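Help! Submission page says 'invalid entity' but I think these are all valid:
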Amino acid sequence: MWRQPSHKGIINSRMTKPSSFISRPSQYLFAFGLITLATAILFALREALDTTLVALLYLIPLGLITAYWGLGPGITSALATFLTLNYFFIKPYYTFAVHRPTDVVILVIFLVVAIVISQLVGRMQASLAAATARELEATWLYELSTALANLHEDHAIAQIVAKQVHEVSQGEAVELNISGTRPFAFCLPGKYSPKRPPEWIVPIEVARGVLGEIRLWRAAPAITSSEKRLLQTFASQGALALERARLAQAESRARVLEESDHLKSILLSSVSHELRTPLSTIKAAASSLRSNEVGWDSAARPELIAAIDDEADHLNMLVGNLLDMSRIESGALKPKREWNILSEIIGSVMARMKHLAGEHRIEVDVPESLPLIPVDYVQMEQVFTNLVSNSVKYAPEKSVIRMCAFLENDAVHVVVRNQGPQVPREHLERIFDKFFRITAADRVTGTGLGLSICKGIIEAHGGRLWAENVPDGLAFNFTIPLAWEGIPPPDLPMEPETE
Amino acid sequence: MSNAPHILVIDDEPQIQRAIRTILTEKGFKVTTASRGGEGLTLAAANEPNIVILDLGLPDMDGVEVCMRLREWTQCPIIILSVRDSERDKVAALDKGADDYLTKPFGIEELLARVRVALRHSASRHGSQNKVIHAGALTIDLAWHSVKRGDEEIKLTATEYKLLAYLASNHGRVLTHQSILTHVWDPADANHTEYLRVYMRQLRKKLEADPERPQFILTEPGIGYRFIAEE
């Protein structure tokens, strides 16, 4: 028997009737009660009524009994009324003997009509119940498939299927086990399933194998065959959804691979050009030093040596950028965060970039009062190095590169501003894309990766990086949230000077 | 030159071996090379070198492990060679007993400077340590706990002094965050780099002409700090 609260309960109790022919004893009791009541009323009016009329009136409770309580009580009541009709209403009263031939005819016709009515009403009821049950099953399946339609994640699918099985079966517990590369189990209503073995197990199967199983614990009432059929349908719906999810995942993986493949080929062509430039310089300088073309005291000698040194550094920077980019792409760039002082980071970048800045003047304005910021020191250095070297590359010589930082809500806002050419509005976003250049590649050196690395790093820190045109040039802005895992920057009390 | 300092180079790349050997031999050192960790350990035990230059990426074993195995029996300075972006390995090796590090590719002056510092420290480990350290106009007297710029006394808090004394007595060497925090604060504070950042800023403000571009206390990104003093 399906125990369901709400309207479903009524439908359910009817639904099981065709499969289980036996009605409950109470229904027989009600049937007999009704027959007794009808007999009592008819008995009181016995003198006023003709036997034929009594027989006809008896058909009313009979019809009602079959309609409400089914075929079993109906037929039994028909036989019972046949006897009471004979006993109380056909002369001689209080015997089962019949004297008049017409009474015999009445009795026989009554019995036949009563049984036929019971049968007809009963059959109608049964088919109605079956239809209702089918409709309900269809509703449940519809609900399930709608719920599963937009899911692409194994856990969510398992959760929906388990919930539906639990709701419909009203079992003590339902557990959904999914096997495969990342097996997991989902249990309802609690977190843990009962210790005893489940009453029923349905495999979740697709063409290429078993994906998992549904375990159902319900000691009483026992699980009926129609329930089993329905649960199997649920399981196969779940299996289809899981299969679809896996296919979708495989497809998106394939797409990502294809994209990264495409990127790699762009990268290769860009990189081979970029790497060859410093290599050619090194090769030319080194080979001319080796040959006897350049004399020991020639003025060209230190210049050639400096070229080799500089280009080797440049090459090292290119390789570093490539590594960083591949790390960002593969999601391996995890900042090693610590509480740091922004001005210390900027200071060490400035010290390192002294010779790269060339003729540009760099001004730094970072207030002392700025709190500590939760960043990866090395990665932040990289961000400043790339932003400044980008500015150095594009802004005219002797122009000013200004760096400033200030507090803004719950973040530190940093601006690196140069007096270089402005960027067309439609390209302001795109300059952070890999390999995107406004100028022709051969006019400026670099991998075209610097800014996208900055973006990757800032975003890994939970911040935002953007560019905007300012009256005399271009400004890079970025923000770094101050809170780190919900903790605000520490405030350290300073001790007094003792000596 | 039988008294020439002996340097053992453990690196699997023949070009690096060749370059280092050429330059160090030219500078008057005795150089032995090994291309595997196991071989390096054997050579170290046989020759007792004055300095070991150790690459972290070896084919047969982890450089950090070589470092630990060496430290089981010798205190000879170990200089780590590694590629960029392996800060974690570098810090691990330094915390496991390595003395210094160099990131590949490196300039030869850097290598020679590291070697000189390492030799000085291994000498001071045996002999008496220099109690007065000069850095630019700064004079740090470790015996008298005094810090002066010229003749002018610089006032430091107790922690600032402890920090400076630790840095200065190891001048030239890189000191990891963890080792500084453990020495100056407490082993329990080894993860509180923010203490270090804040005190370092205070210290630089008192010692450096331009605290944003320090001359004496240098930051080693992702690793620690290094104090630069006169030899």
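Support: the input was valid. A stray whitespace character was the problem, and the output above is from the cleaned input. The first helix of chain A runs from residue 8 to 15.
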